[in-house]
Amino acid sequence: MLSRRSIGITLTWALIVVVLSIGLYQLSCRLFLKVDQVDQISSVLATIQSVSALLDNRAPTIGEMLNRTLLMMFLFSLMIMLLISNVITALSTFFSSEELDLIFSSPLSYRSLFCSKFVETAIQSSWMVFIVLVPFLAALGRVYRAPTWFYFVAWVPLVPFVVYCTATGIIITLLLAKVFPVSQTRNLLRFLAVLGAGAVLIIFRVMRPELLVAPDHFREFLVMLNTPWNPHLENIPSGWAVKEILWMMDFPLSALWYDHLLLWLGAAVCLVITYRFCSRLHLACWQVHLEISDESVGPMIRSGSLTEVKESLLDRLLSPLGIAGRSILSKDVRVFCRSPVIWTQIMLMVVIMIIYLYNVHLLPLKTMHGVSPVFLEWLAFLNIGFVAFVVVALGLRFGFPAISLEGQGFFLIHNSPVGIDRYFMIKFWSNFVPLNGISLTLVLVSDYILGVRSWVFWLSILDVALLTYMIAALALGFGAFYHDFKRQSLSEIPSSFGGMVFMVTTLSSVVLVMLLQALPFWYYTELALSIAKPKPWHYWLGLVCLLCSIGLCLALARLALSWGIRSLRYLEVS
Amino acid sequence: MIKIENLTKMYGETCAVAELSLEVPPGEICGLLGPNGAGKTTTIRILNGLARPTSGRVTLGGFDLSTHAREAKRMVGYCPDRPYLYEKLTGYEFLMFVGGLYDLSPDQVARSAQPFLERFGLIEYVGRLIEGYSHGMRQKLMIASSLLHSPRIYIVDEPMVGLDPASARKICSLIREMGSRGVTVLLSTHTLTVAEKVCDRIAILNRGRLVALGRIDELKALTKGEHRTLEEVFLKLTEEESVEEACLSGI
After folding, report:
1. Which of A431, A552, A556, B23 is most buried when burial is the number of CB atoms within 10 A of its CB?
2. Residue A154 half-sphere exposure toward CB, CA atoms < 13 A
3. In chain B, what are the domains?
């Protein structure tokens, strides 16, 4: 029988998924509609469209071609991410899973093992695909008035698409495992994963899809539709899946008979080939995986005397924190730096931040007419919100799991005289300082690019610092309350129920703080655009709203820290 | 040095420890025995502040654990039955980390750890990542780390699990040395031969209750001298307790 807590958690999860799906559906509808109506933006495009329709009334419109290309590009990017995700997941399911000891020593047929592991890998790596793509496809169906049955079966072509990705991922994993031990493979593949994801993001940015709706770049737009890249998009599993989906909507340029065959029969053949491959190689590679690497790091104990070991640079740098503070922080830094998962997450975050700043740099502020200082100040104000969202994402990835990642070894801290209060505050400051560094860098660089006035500059710094303080405290507080010392995967902890609650609560708090400051900012804009002079109550309103937002940030941070300390103090450690 | 007064721990309806009272003076090695689910680990967790008692009082070295937890924890060294270590640290870094939690400087940690590591044969491995250690090596590292701050009270739960006979012997002699230096030791074990060799007194728990407490000869006297070994005494005492409870519950 399900407990009330389980039911509550499940319902909350379902609510979050539904709300996110509705949001994604709405955004996708707008995107597809905007792209579909691109010929209405430019008279040249409209003329081309009319001529094309006269020559062949079944020819696709420019909007349809663009949406088709958009879908191809999106599913291609997804395919790359899925491939890499499947390779990493296969490492866990096919090699690191604890039950493999029992299964390989039992008389169970390899077919049963393969089937269960294949399905497990596919679901673990791809469940997010369905959650993201289902509202996306529903939006496509709505914009192009697809038949009713489309909404129930639009997801079906994703199944062979996922089979292709999973099968290929498993084969790559086994090939790499054949060459060297799995512990090294994981390190290599995680770096490759991030480089691959980063490359996709960067390539996508370099392709500049904003050209799709910028008639000023008509020439580049036509070139883009006809680039040699397009034929390659058509002849891969993502292309076949897209054409199958479009075929269901009776879309022009959709699947022909060989596309159906390649998608469905091809997936089945791929599955059989993967099974044959695994049945020959899996056991041998798994046995090699059991060999643990004999790595020696840190200070060399050559003489056999511990007293002769020199203090490391890290320990010297942290010595002002006191003995206990230094030992906790140096342990965290070492574990952090030696975890390949964390490094791949950091690389991904760095790529995202570079792309964020690149986007700000790309804003055509110099070429646009009538760009007033007020417009730039609004951009700078919105920028504070965007930076805060980036910090929330970082807080979820690194701050929220900080307590849980102590693992079963948390008893060492709980059992020691260091005290939970002191330990918690050390953890808080060690999370806040780097987060603040990142957020201030983002806001300083983006404000410099925007060229805002000095009072906006200083307001941005104050706001971002306060928001980062609040977010870091909320991350630690929620992380302490929703601790899970048994889960050691950095990817599982943020995607837990507690992680979702943290994200929703923190984003809501950020929006509240921004709304408090948006009110006086709105009046400031009205005054700046008119010839009226500000009245005394305008200044009071600005001051009160600023103080309220400062108070809100500090109060929420204080509450979160107290809550986190209390959660750990009364924790029963198993 | 260890004083437990009417300690009770309830998990919902289940009583893990019931009205346990036990006193272990300085320098004594007291064994804590009992079948699975007797409440040994729960008692040990409460003594280390890792669980809160439902009622009762625990005093360690004169400090009440509920009001002076930090002072009490400074005096206690604890080694759990399963060595949970940070895989991505080397043995040396782990010792420095644990020593730092007890405000020991790196020099103090090095001087304190050196004899233990030499005794356990871990010196040549201390520069390697813990993820490459065997279970026995981890257990020995855990024991070394729990003794860095020279505790006056040492609580150890199943120290011999996963150790080869030579290492187990070293641990036994280490515990005896600690007792002779005046350290109060509470040792929980299933290995009755170890308890016989090492412990001055033995407390037997069954279903959360203390069913027997005393030296080996005193325990044998409880069974009217019918049983020669501690194992026979233990089985008899825990069986009788189970039968009595079964009768009372009408089974």
Report:
1. A431
2. 23
3. 1-75+152-165+174-215 (3.40.50.300), 84-150 (no CATH)
CA distances from A522 to A273, A431, A516, A527 (A): 63, 34, 11, 9
**What ipTM goes with this model?**
0.83
Tokens at A50, concatenated? 């009319």
- The identity of residue A377, as a single letter, is E
- Write out residues 65-94 of B within 8 Å (CB-CB) of A: 70-71, 73-74, 76, 78, 80, 82, 84-86, 88-90, 92-93
Three-point CA angle B172, B134, A343, nearest 5°: 135
**A41 in Cβ contact with A213 (< 8 Å):** yes
Q: Is B142 on the interface with A (CB under 8 A)?
A: no
Helices marked H in A144-256: 150-153, 158-179, 182-207, 218-225, 229-234, 237-248
Give which of A394, A343, A491 is closest to B88, Cα–Cα.
A343
- Give the mean pLDDT of A23-30: 78
Would you call A327 and B101 a contact, using CB atoms and an 8 Å cutoff?
A: yes
Residues of chain B with C-beta less than 8 angstroms from the C-beta of A295? 128-129, 132
Q: Check CB contact under 8 Å for A409 and B78.
A: no
* Model pTM score: 0.76
Does the beta-carbon distance from B103 to A417 stay under 8 Å? yes
Could A306 and B127 be called an inter-chain contact, meaning their C-beta atoms sit closer than 8 Å?
Answer: no
Interchain CB distance below 8 Å, B73 and A412: no
Rounded CA separation B40/B17 (Å): 8
Confidence check: pLDDT of B239 > 70: yes
